[in-house]
Specification:
alpha/beta; 12 helices; 47% helix; 5-stranded parallel beta sheet; Rossmann fold; 2 domains
């Protein structure tokens, strides 16, 4: 069955990923590899970051920075990380500045993926597809919102719907809003777990990040039966 809707993630796809800032912070401060991602995604879930994405924490303020920093600096979390990654050399439990890290994460997402954005404009100009975004977002306005939001016919944001990827319910809600069966929808994201969850709902998927954008555009063109890349 032909594709009727193309859905894009934002951070890591249409703009640079906050993961770049997380990796840079780890290197600069001598933190173990993937420690911060472990603490954000695995330790005492939902973490302050996850709660922010779902609107349970309503503001990015001093209170959030404190919660975020304390969570990432939890010695018990560090011990849990060491158990999962026993090859890691033990050091003193990390102390993370929540405000500095989060600010840098936001700054990282201010860099647009220009080739993909140009493609989205071409895609929308055909008038043949619903062009939407599905994103784990924050309760703030970012530097790129004014540029990104007009690209899409609709946006499902985690803060607004109180759900975040990869919860199956957010994909089900997306399909309801698109009013389409899953096999007529393709979703582009940079994170494997998010794509895996979409596939379980029957949605077609393409993995993409800044490095693989040309390949992803070719894949999407082929899936749609288009040659929009030739117009870029």
């Amino acid at each position: 069955m032909s594709i009727k809707a193309v859905v894009f993630d934002l951070g890591g796809v249409c703009v640079a990923s906050p993961l770049h800032a997380i990796n840079a912070y780890e290197k600069e401060h001598g933190l173990p590899h993937n420690y911060l991602n472990f603490m954000i995604a695995k330790w005492k879930s939902p973490s302050p970051m996850n709660r922010l994405e779902m609107g349970a924490i309503e503001a990015v303020d001093a209170n959030f920075y404190k919660l975020f920093g304390e969570h990432l600096s939890d010695p018990e979390g560090y011990e849990a990380y060491l158990k999962q990654f026993p090859e890691t050399k033990r050091t003193k439990a990390p102390v993370v500045d929540g405000e500095t890290l989060f600010t840098r994460m936001l700054d990282a997402t201010s860099t647009p993926n220009e080739p993909l954005i140009a493609y989205i404009r071409q895609l929308k100009a055909t008038g043949k597809y619903k062009v939407w975004a599905l994103t784990n977002n924050f309760p703030i306005t970012t530097k790129t919102d004014g540029m990104l939001h007009p690209l899409f016919d609709g946006i499902v944001g985690s803060v607004q719907v109180k759900l975040r990827k990869p919860d199956p319910r957010i994909y089900q809600l997306l399909l309801q809003r698109l009013d389409l069966p899953a096999n007529q929808v393709v979703f582009l994201d940079d994170i494997g777990a998010n794509l895996k969850a979409a596939k379980k709902e029957g949605i077609r998927t393409i993995q993409v990040d800044f490095r693989t954008t040309p390949k992803a555009i070719e894949q999407l063109d082929a899936m749609l039966g288009e040659n929009l890349k030739a117009k870029l």
